[in-house]
Structures are given as C-alpha cells and as structure tokens.
Specification:
The protein has 148 residues and is an alpha+beta fold. It folds into two domains: 63 residues, Ribosomal protein L9, N-terminal domain (Ribosomal Protein L9, domain 1); 82 residues, Ribosomal Protein L9, domain 2 (Roll), CATH 3.10.430.100. Helix content is 31%, strand content 32%. The strands form three sheets. The chain has a four-stranded mixed β-sheet. It has a three-stranded antiparallel β-sheet with strand order 2-1-3, with no helix packed on it. Keywords: Ribonucleoprotein, Ribosomal protein, RNA-binding, rRNA-binding. Pfam families: Ribosomal_L9_C, Ribosomal_L9_N. It comes from Arachnia propionica.
C-alpha cells in the first residue's frame, strides 16, 4: 500500500514522504490515526504543502538547535496544575502542558511530541524533562509544578 505521511513516524519516515507499507499497517493504523493519507495523483499535489509546513516548524540545523537548547535551559518554567493539599496532582503534567509553559515563559514554540518525561509528573515540585530539538541535540528542561 502506497501512502503519503502527514506526520513523522518512527522507523518509517517524516511528513511528506511517500512510503510503501503493508496493507494492514496502513489501513488499520496509519490512516485512522491521521499519520498518513492514501497516495493518489491528486494527493501527491499535497506533498509540497506538507513539506512547506514541516520546514516552517523544523529546526534549521544543529547550530540552530544548540541555540534553542541554551535558550530553553536558561528559562524559569512554572507549570500550574490542580493539586491536593498533600502535594499530589489531580492527573499529571503532560507534554502539551510543558510545551505551553515554555512558550509562556518566553521560550520558543516546541512540539509537544518532542517532549518526554523519565517518569510521569504527578507531584508538586521541581522536575526535569527532555526535549528532542534535533536528532543530535536534546535539551534538558527543568521546571517547577506549582498548585493552581
């Protein structure tokens, strides 16, 4: 089955790539999840738009990624979350919460899919997450969870 990827899929490709996958993987996972569209001559015209959007979001190189890393690591990031008196959260801090907090703290817009936690953040206090800015550059982001 021939597909056009609309987002990055590990070990398969990046947005805008035309890939050949097994029918079941494409039909049952990639297309329903919105990670790909079925290839056709008409859909092939969308590839250019997908690539332009990806290039606008993408970090321009290792040097640019290293600049972003130093900028992000210098920020003081506070993530508000609903918490009990004991300090435990009602839920957990998500990658989207952290990406939004980085932007509010004056940092660059980061993709929530590039944020990862060593373990789920479910308590008030200081925590660390990693943000993959480039395949060769990862930033360690320190943030404080405060009760909202």
């Amino acid at each position: 089955m021939k597909l056009i990827l609309t987002s990055t899929v590990d070990k398969l490709g990046i947005a805008g790539d035309v890939v050949e996958v097994r029918n079941g993987y494409g039909r049952n996972y990639l297309v329903p999840q919105g990670k790909a569209i079925v290839w056709s001559r008409g859909a092939e015209k969308q590839i250019e738009g997908i690539k332009r959007a990806r290039d606008a979001r993408e970090v321009r190189g290792v040097e640019h990624a290293q600049e972003l890393r130093t900028q992000i690591e210098e920020l003081t990031i506070k993530v508000p979350a609903r918490a009990a008196e004991s300090g435990s959260l009602f839920g957990a801090v998500t990658a989207a919460n952290l990406a939004l907090a980085v932007k509010k703290a004056g940092g660059p817009a980061i993709d929530k899919r590039s944020v990862s936690f060593a373990k789920p953040v479910k308590t008030v206090g200081n925590h660390v997450a990693s943000v993959k800015l480039h395949p060769a550059v990862t930033a360690r982001v320190g943030f404080e969870v405060i009760p909202a």
